[in-house]
Amino acid sequence: MTCRTPLAALLAASLLSLVPTGCILRPRAAEKPAAAAPLPKEIRNATDDSVLLLVPGGEGLMGLPSQPKRVTLKPFYMDRTEVTNAQYARFLAAVAKQGDEAWRHPDQPASKKAHEPAFWTHEQLGAGKADCPVVGVDWFDAYAYAKWADKRLPTEAEWERAARGTDGRIYPWGPEPPEKGFTFRANFYGTHLGADGFPFTAPVGSFPLGASPVGCLDMAGNVAEWCADWFAPLPAETRLVNPTGPAQGTARVTKGGGWNLGADSLRSFNRWPLEPLGRASNVGFRCAKDIPVESPALPAK
């Protein structure tokens, strides 16, 4: 009788004969995926020629020092400075040419037909002060501008993170008061109005010593800033993840104090309600931007 060995067995035996004695065959380890490139610390937004700074994600403190909330946020970008009159003028030109249908908030009242600020012709606060922050804008103005610029308004939690870093500091620069001797860290009502050299708003970035941990400027003083959130007491929970505030309300959050307010108003945990259609000579805004899903915007030059 002839013994026939299956072909598969012969092939297996021949392959094993090629392996040195004592060696064990192991599957090849899967190659590790390439590490993601680090996000740029700064990016430039072409629409309004603004520079945004990276705010890293992670945990930080929010709210009153006596009742702090531990808040975890995803990373995002924040405007280095408040929106200026010159930048806002670009937006007004776009609205004049195209209307605001593409950028207006769904809840913007039908009666609101324009986005010109309340103090646009004011000698000290208006369009003539190109490098000063725009004021006299309501929440719908700020929302529409942000959408036009392919950005958005920051949440209150994001605003505090950009201003306070992760250690819950009192002011963006730390615990020191905004006026010490002849050194000013912010534009505000000090020993007298104009003691810091500016009786009204100051050109953005005029107080580099007041920079926040990530480098944002004028987050204390100059103008208070609109946030995306409805105003309400902070949640009772002590740990929050990417909070966006309540679903509805009657007023929106503003943060940061202003040029005609005292030092206490500049504390980064302070918050004030303002009706969405409210306009004031000391209220403006800055924008935030999500991290792009695919590739980041071009680094700032």
Write structural notes for this entry.
- A hairpin with a 4-residue loop joins strand 1 and strand 2 (50-55).
- This protein starts with 6 loop residues before the first helix and ends in an 11-residue tail after the last strand.
- The longest helix is centred in the first third of the chain and has 14 residues, at 85-98.
- The chain has helices spanning 7-17, 85-98, 139-148, 156-164, and strands at 42-45, 50-55, 58-62, 69-73, 76-79, 179-180, 183-184, 224-230, 239-241, 252-255, 272-274, 283-284, 288-290.
- It contains four helices and 13 strands.
- It has one domain: paralog of FGE (formylglycine-generating enzyme) (Alpha-Beta Complex), CATH 3.90.1580.
- The strands form four sheets. It has a four-stranded antiparallel sheet. It has a four-stranded mixed sheet with strand order 11-10-8-12. A three-stranded mixed sheet has the order 3-4-9, with helices on one face.
How does the SSE layout of this entry go?
Blueprint lengths: L6 H11 L24 E4 L4 E6 L2 E5 L6 E5 L2 E4 L5 H14 L40 H10 L7 H9 L14 E2 L2 E2 L39 E7 L8 E3 L10 E4 L16 E3 L8 E2 L3 E3 L11
Parallel strand pairs: 4-9, 8-12
Antiparallel strand pairs: 1-2, 2-5, 3-4, 5-13, 6-7, 8-10, 10-11
